[in-house]
Design brief:
alpha/beta; Double Stranded RNA Binding Domain
């Protein structure tokens, strides 16, 4: 039973995290003029987590009718960065006695909290025209499950409406 509690603790911690998602953009940008994108060329192969991010960004932009193109001719270059912070948590498993509930057993756990920032750079001018971000999700072994939802939530802010503001929402 103790092994089960320790195994489930990272999942419980992950489900309690708040996912902060937001976007900002360059004012007076005509986003309707952009019809193609390319991932910014890399000099090194992507890590497993980066591969998940890249696949989901491509899938999300294609769902918004943007066409993946060559970096030399695409309207937008897409780049991103990830920051992973090691976090520490503790939980108690309460136990009941005949007269009251006791704190029970405490378990310490570490987990990774990840921030993802996605930038859209106008290829011709070299300026960032849109930025979306999410902070608070868990990477690591949970990345295959969490990254698709995180990227989807980031890309909800593209193309921006006239009143795009950062927002915070609980992780689903």
């Amino acid at each position: 039973m103790r092994t089960l509690a320790i195994t489930l603790l990272p999942l419980a911690l992950a489900s309690c995290l708040r996912l902060e998602v937001g976007a900002s953009h360059e004012p007076d940008t005509d986003f309707a003029a952009y019809s193609s994108f390319a991932l910014q060329p890399r000099t090194t192969p992507p890590t497993l987590l980066e591969g998940y991010v890249e696949s989901e960004v491509v899938r999300g932009l294609e769902a918004k009718s943007l066409v993946e193109n060559d970096p030399g001719t695409a309207d937008l270059l897409v780049t991103y960065w990830l920051r992973i912070d090691r976090r520490y948590g503790a939980s108690a498993v309460p136990t009941r006695g005949p007269f009251k509930t006791h704190a029970g057993t405490f378990h310490d756990e570490t987990y990774d909290e990840t921030t993802l920032v996605v930038d859209f750079i106008e290829r011709r001018s070299g300026r960032i025209v849109w930025r979306g971000w999410a902070a608070g999700f868990v990477g690591g072994v949970e990345a295959a499950r969490t990254v698709p939802e995180v990227v989807r939530r980031i890309l909800e802010g593209y193309p921006p409406t006239t009143d795009t503001t950062a927002h915070t929402a609980k992780k689903p």
